[in-house]
Amino acid sequence: LVYCTCSLEAREGEEQIAKFMKNRPEFRLNSELSISVIGANGALTREGFVRMRPDMLFDKGGMDGFFIAMFTRC
């Protein structure tokens, strides 16, 4: 299961993930999520989320902000 939002707000990213995990114990965060975007160094967080910021890929015109988390059903 993948959760993705085009937001920089923690309340729409990390906080939603915390609520989901509290209410859905049959899922676990899959920290094997990886991203291969040239120039997007630092997109993968230590928790295993992907957080893309508008300053990433600036030399290619920039981008919107995104938050991505991946889950596996236990």
Q: How are helices and strands ordered from N to C?
A: EHEEE
What best-fitting shape do the alpha-carbon axes yield? elongated
- Largest sheet features: 4 strands, antiparallel
Structural class: alpha+beta
Number of domains: 1
Query: Can you count the helices?
Result: 1
Determine Rg (CA atoms, Å).
13 Å
Features:
14% helix, S-adenosyl-L-methionine, 24% strand, 4 strands, single chain, 74 residues, alpha+beta, transferase, four-stranded antiparallel sheet, elongated, methyltransferase
Please tell me about this protein's structure.
With 74 residues, this protein is of the alpha+beta class. It is 14% helix and 24% strand. The protein contains 1 helix and 4 strands; from the N terminus they run βαβββ. The mean pLDDT is 86.
How are the elements arranged and paired?
Layout (H helix, E strand, L loop, with lengths): L1 E4 L8 H10 L3 E3 L20 E3 L13 E8 L1
Antiparallel strand pairs: 1-4, 2-4, 3-4
Describe what is shown at a glance.
The protein is an alpha+beta fold.
